[in-house]
Amino acid sequence: MAENRKPTKKDEQLEKYTVVDKGKKLTTNTGLKMAEDEFSLKAGERGPTLLEDFHFREKMTHFDHERIPERVVHARGYSAHGEFQVYEPLKEFTKAGFLNDTSKTTPVFVRFSTVAGSKGSSETVRDVRGFSTKFYTDEGNYDLVGNNIPVFFIQDAIKFPDLAHAVKPEPHNGMPQAASAHDTFWDFIANNQESAHMAMWAMSDRGIPRSFRMMEGFGVHTFRLINDKGESHFVKFHWKPVLGTHSLVWDEAQKLSGKDADFHRRDLWESIENGEYPEYELGLQIIKEEDEFSFDFDILDPTKVWPEEEIPVKIVGKMTLNRNVDNVFAENEQVAFHPGSIVPGIDFSNDPLLQGRLFSYTDTQLIRLGGPNFHEIPINRPVCPFHNNQRDGHMRQTVNRGQVSYGNNSLADNTPETTPPEEGGFEHYHERIDAHKIRARSDSFKDHFSQARLFWNSMSDPEKEHIKEAFSFELGKVGEPSVQKQVVDMFANVSRELSDTIAEATGTEKAVGTESQVTKASPALSQENTTFTPSGRKVGIIAADGYNADAVRSAAEKLRAEGAVIEVISAKGGELTGSDGTKLGVDHTFLTGESVLFDALLAVGGKDTDRPFQHDARYFLLEAFQHFKPIGATKDAAAWLEAENMNDRPGVVLEDNAADFPKAFAEAVASHRFWGRDIMN
């Protein structure tokens, strides 16, 4: 735990269940100290093992049952603890205590994840990312269970099994793992056209985020805020990363999958361990009840965004992740999120995808975590007391005293008793319903292409090129020509430019049809309109013995002052000796490190750079150049860039050409990518 952070109620609660084994005596699970743990109990040294060896049986039985079923979706994930604090009281909109008390720090637990892959899959694949937050409030747990994309593929939860089946490895051969570039996924997209908008997001840079720290989060659905007068407002939830929203490039993401399948979790873990705590601001889009039908989209449709230019995002608080998990299984794997975990002041809308999730999450936890008592696992327990007449069941931990476990009763004075709404009891919003029972979908949900076009219109030229490349790659992996043709025809409704690109890339006949005539754009959807800062960036310094100590020192000081992380790369490990005799520790060698692990590279060289060193250094720099990353070079290393024709290009900063080299390079690092760079010449 960070020294400057006060323990929260959740920390204190988890501490009760935390065991440190170091320095302790080995015992069985019943506390029996054991004199031997190396050998089974046998009938003679070379005889059979005896059934009475209770220690062996306990140890082996536990090992045989250490794994629980992985999540059907979101299996590959990683988590961290933190805290949330609201900036100003929101009494006008909600009576939720944690959104009104500015003096209170609410403990949180956040899990980030990919959706499609199994637990052992890579983290930098093209996929939607889960972004789920558990608030341990004084009124009970509130779970904001969202994604890094504000819309979803389907409009009704009854379609979710179909979507998951389509994107998962194909059942006849079990391939591909953690990838949507295959026939069944795109067959689903083409034949369920409500997915058009989400497919545009997934094929954009949002599908390959740079890190969890630089990734937006969205509640996806429309919820309600209820104030103490019983008044309702519709709301959508946003998490805005303080470091801005940034992404990888596709070649980089693919290489990272092989170089470091744990890239995203490692990034999160190391940033917290180093005290560079990820921060996110909570934003709310709020619509008055009477304005429900005032827009050119249905606000309950989960395939639609609320454009921020029409419904501004009100920033209301900040979440800081400041403690890593103590045990990945106990916390990251056993945490159970549920959109139905709410508190007074927050309620549901009639979004049909949300309505289905309210059933699904409880149902899946019963199987995955072994029964109805998953709420008693330490990471899931609320920090406030809880009392009800639920009893027994698999893995029950609470020991309930007394003879009464029912209501109404007289033997326990009719307790536990309910709490009136005016005293903090939860009450569902009194929404008037007058309708026929019917299996149908509102006509207002039937426009599938207007917002897909809105998204396309909102992208910068480089972002559009990335979307075209992503579609071309994905459809290029599809083996069935009829599926390719259906997708070409479908996305002609969004953009003929996009559709024609897919057709040309796949050798498919171009579509005949009319693209959407929507001209509206939402600049907030482009990642070019985000925060740009060196903070949180990882910069690799390529150096050798005899490096220019002054140049390294001044550049490193400037970058660290701006919040960047500095790591040194050289031909071998140990320490390097600078031009003034100072020592510099090596973090990576050319063998153990890779260009794709860094946001920017600074080449400083040194006196001891033979041809193999220069070859490796130039390879690092060339790959970073091709990924549009910032590159800096001192006088001693400038020749490496010249040899590869990389000098005098956007985002390449040379010491000879900069009056204030450290400042100029730090500004380049802040820019993240230089899309105007011509990488072909």
TrEMBL record:
CDD domains cross-referenced by the UniProt entry: catalase_clade_2, GATase1_catalase
Lineage: superkingdom: Bacteria
Keywords: Heme, Hydrogen peroxide, Iron, Metal-binding, Oxidoreductase, Peroxidase
Stored SMART domains: Catalase
Keyword Cytoplasm listed: no
Stretches assigned to the Catalase core domain: 27-415
Function noted in UniProt: Decomposes hydrogen peroxide into water and oxygen; serves to protect cells from the toxic effects of hydrogen peroxide.
Protein name as annotated: Catalase
